[in-house]
Amino acid sequence: MYPFQKVIINALEGNRFNILRKFRQAGCTTIAAAYSLWLCCFRSHQTIVILSVGDTESTEVLDRIKIMYDELPEWIKPKSTTINAHNLKLENNSHIKSRPSGKQSGRGLSGSLLIIDEAAFIEHIDTIWAAVYPIISTGGRAFVLSTVNGIGNWYYDTWTRAVDGANAFNPIQIGWQDHPEYNRVEGFEWLYKEMEQRDPPMDIDEWEPTTRANISHKKWLQEYECEFLGTGDTFIEGMILQALTENINDNFYRKYNNRMYVWKDPDPNSTYFMAVDVALGRGRDYSAFQIIDLYSGEQVAEFYSNTTPINELARICFDEGNYYNLCPILVERNTIGNNLLDYLFDQLEYENVWFDEKQQMGLQITAKNRDNVLVEMEEAIRMNEVKINSKRTVMELNTFIISDNGKVKADTGQNDDLVMSLALSIYGGRRYREENPEIVKFNPAKERKPPMPLKSQKIMTSTGHTNEDITWLIK
Question: Which of 54, 59, 142, 257 is most buried, judging by how many CB atoms fall within 10 Å of its CB?
Answer without folding.
Answer: 142
